[in-house]
Amino acid sequence: MEKNATVGQKKKKAVAGTKYFSNITDNSFQNYFQISPKKSGRNRLLKFRSLFLVALLILTALISFNIVTQQNPTCGLAISNLLPEKTKFFGNGGVETTRREEGAKEGFWKQPNGMGYRPCLEFSEDYRNETESVIKDRRKFVILVVNGGLNQQRNQIVDAVVIARILGAALVVPIMKVNVVWGDDSEFTDIFDFEYFKKTLADDIRVVASLPWFHVTTNHIDGSQNEFNASPEWYRRKYLRKMNRFGVLLLRSIDSRLSKDLPPDLQKLRCKAAFQALRFAAPIMELGNKLTERMRSEGPYLALHLRMERDVWVRTGCLPGLTEYYDDIIYDERKNRPDLLSGRTNMEYHQRKLAGLCPLTSVEISRLMKALGVPRNTRIYLAGGEPFGGEVAMKPLLQEFPYMYNKENISLPGELEQFADRASILAALDFIVAENSDVFMQSHGGNMGRALQGRRTFFGHKKHIVPQKRQMISYFLNETMPESEFNTIIRDLHHDLISHRAPSKDVTSHPIPDCMCNTTSTATIGSVFF
């Protein structure tokens, strides 16, 4: 009985920990915009309340002054309430803002040299000549059913565009499968701008909102059994004859099925779909840009994609390393659900850690950021879900970098309500703020990190940091190494280089050289805000 009670207490504690981010907004940005209640006229008749009224008026005046004097008030430091001494964002004044802006072009904030590379999506004459027959075709249609999270969905949509071109078919607006984890039933038009998508690809494929009536009841070709890393020729052999007969191909489970090493024109089409055609819907863009403006209101900011959610630890086969209590929870969950483990099931946790397959912990992220010269007063936008372990997981990072924010505590009351229970749209807001940041850093690999790496390269070589985990781990474990030596080594591992795409890499994360040309011009390519 005592053991069962202990287990129950542990479960309650774990649930409370994962609710950390949802509870931290009590003293957040929202509170600065709450309207004081109207003062009742009857209070004037009660003399013994006069002192209370005077105090209330003074307090209201002080709060109003605090708001009015800020041209772009941003979030209160709800997260830093964990610290023994609360740090206030307000009160730095123009001097601090100027100092941040002056330092934005040097030190940690210095942007990489693009070496003259610029976006270059000029298609060959043969490709352009074939376009007319592709656009005129009215017999063949590709329907895509996408699954997974937002950035996994993006990858599948991009590949479907290329597959439709390979088969000379029209692409029907993709069907978004309900996310079984989050219960998100958003449709394509809820997340992306369909008309812009259609218009941008008008010279490449025909995009339609639905099947024509005469195809609705016809037999569809099952497109769920596709080879991994399949070539364009494979898709033509597999489907083209059937499509000429039946007309409609229903694609499912195409994530990582199309080869990453395609002919030049198809690589360019991939980039065009990923970087230009897939634009978020207007309401998402509007709020995402507002959140960006609030983060940028006092100078440059860093966006950190923190991968410390409960499911990440389970799927990677790694342990959070907080305490034995939290490690046991992850170990037991993975033992009960071995199907959740993604790849290399024969490797133990320590082997995974040494191979650089585990997400960085809060302590490791903090050490990495300090070694790279991130100023302590850097304002950091946290993208991602709630860290497993809550306060315990976040405290080492917050002690070194207290100015941390997320979409919940920089949004005004009601701004996020329209997107409640829409995990993909909330992820899109994180994506926008992270893309627009001065520096982006990811703590672990993933679709979002790769997508942002590609976009930030394509639209201006904006600085992004990909932790070299496998090379760093031995230095993290060396407890006798002087901090100065550690910092030097870490900086050397992360020096800025323009990397060309390897055949195994996706062009949407490494657009050089397939989608970017090298010229003699050294002009800086400005970032594009979508």
Automatic annotation (TrEMBL):
Pfam families: O-FucT (PF10250). It is a single-pass type II membrane protein. GO terms for cellular component: cytoplasm; membrane. It is found in: Membrane. InterPro entries: FucosylTrfase_pln, GDP-Fuc_O-FucTrfase. The chain crosses the membrane at residues 48-68. Its main location: membrane. GO terms for biological process: fucose metabolic process. One of its GO terms (molecular function) is glycosyltransferase activity. Signal peptide: none annotated. Pathway: Glycan metabolism. Keywords: Carbohydrate metabolism, Fucose metabolism, Glycoprotein, Glycosyltransferase, Membrane, Signal-anchor, Transferase, Transmembrane, Transmembrane helix. It comes from the Eukaryota. Belongs to the glycosyltransferase GT106 family. This is O-fucosyltransferase family protein. It comes from Zostera marina (Eelgrass).
